[in-house]
Amino acid sequence: MGFVLPLFVFVAYLYGVSAQGPTYATIIVKSAAKIAETDDQFICATLDWWPSDKCNYHDCPWGKSGVPYLDLSHPTFAKAIQAFGHLRIRIGGSLQDKVVYNVGALKYPCHPFKKMDKWLFGFTKGCLYMSRWDELNLLLSKTGAIVTFGLNALYGRHKTGKVAWGGAWDSSNAREFIKYTVSKGYHIDSWELGNELSEPAVGASVSAEQYGKDMIELNAIIKEIYKNSHSRPLILAPGGFFSASWYAKLLEISGPNVVNAVTHHLYNLGPGNDPHLVDRILDPHYLSQSTSDTFQKLQQTIKVHGPWASAWVGESGGAYNSGGRHVSNTFVDSFWYLDQLGMASKYNTKVYCRQTLIGGNYGLLNTTTFTPNPDYYSALFWHRLMGKGVLSVDSKASAHLRVYAHCSKSRVSSTLLQNV
Ligand SMILES: *[C@@H]1O[C@H](CO)[C@@H](O)[C@H](O)[C@H]1NC(C)=O
């Protein structure tokens, strides 16, 4: 047993306080026992698939940030990843369920995404060329990234209702793709199946019964392809918006040790063009209430229906539809982001993936210049200071003072404590 070195992060909203003079607060950190534990690599950021003509509210903030289009040789890009030592990167998003991998025998032609308003999510199917996948892996391995890849879970299914999709998942293309990936020696930490296809759904949904069976199939594929490897990747699902009944059913049907991490998405601030984004970000009651219920119920669902699994936030960008312009890429957004990192940790979330590393208005890096936005530094700060052990805190301070305590990451960071 080593010493527990608690480290604090104060996120304070001090607007109006100066007029009243100094106020004093009592904060008690209980360092005797951990209340939760995150993964060693808790901070994660996403890469999405959107082409440059993806627009919301007459704003097209994706540029060439999508996985097929990104300038992988931009010098800032590699450096931004390397600063974390090992940054988790999740490749996924709405269009992942329309991506064809250009390997093996194909059931659909492999063509780049094209804007088509009538199609699901406004685009045709897209293509991941293996030459692109090679380039991407070269960069990811060079930068020490820990990769989660979201597989196309609509492959082979057909529309059966307004949003419902039916039929079993056709795993043939994913199988060829995973086989190719392993044959090239590319290290994938985790394979995730599907993006936002659970119920309630945004654009397309699959029943929990069918999804559970598909997870059993993915597990069998992974077992077979990785049988000679010394480490086996994790399996993640469903990367959707949490509902207790759908998630419970998925865990029940897929059964023990199939889904290793249950992923869910959070967009608790509202649509990107909402004029009240900043008010919500700076409202402690809103911050406390808008996601704690989800975290708590997911923790409970896992405890009852899938104690073998852990909870991950697979995608979270604050404001949905590409983020809030002049909000998600500015300093004020960190009041939301850091609070989320603290809260998610308290509920035993192992990994928290920020939408996005680059792309949209919520990128940690600017879409065109690759310059870090304020939240990039918040992510890096958290990553370097906050250890795995989460401690409980009693605060008798104003609700505007948000306090979270973790064991420190190392002895070095405990020195930094004095300067926080
Ligand atoms: C990126 O930076 C440029 C230049 O500062 C700015 O005009 C643009 O709005 C930024 N893009 C995004 C998506 O934040």
TrEMBL record:
Pfam entry (one): Glyco_hydro_79n
Gene3D superfamilies according to UniProt: Glycosidases (3.20.20.80)
Signal peptide segment: 1-19
Compartmental location: Lysosome membrane; Secreted
Membrane-protein topology: Peripheral membrane protein
Keyword Glycoprotein: yes
GO molecular function: beta-glucuronidase activity
Record has DNA-binding as a keyword: no
Keywords: Glycoprotein, Hydrolase, Lysosome, Membrane, Secreted, Signal
GO cellular component: extracellular region; lysosomal membrane; plant-type cell wall
Function: Endoglycosidase which is a cell surface and extracellular matrix-degrading enzyme. Cleaves heparan sulfate proteoglycans (HSPGs) into heparan sulfate side chains and core proteoglycans.
Family classification: Belongs to the glycosyl hydrolase 79 family.
Name of this chain's protein: Heparanase-like protein 1
Organism of origin: Aquilegia coerulea (Rocky mountain columbine)
Lineage of origin: Eukaryota, Viridiplantae, Streptophyta, Embryophyta, Tracheophyta
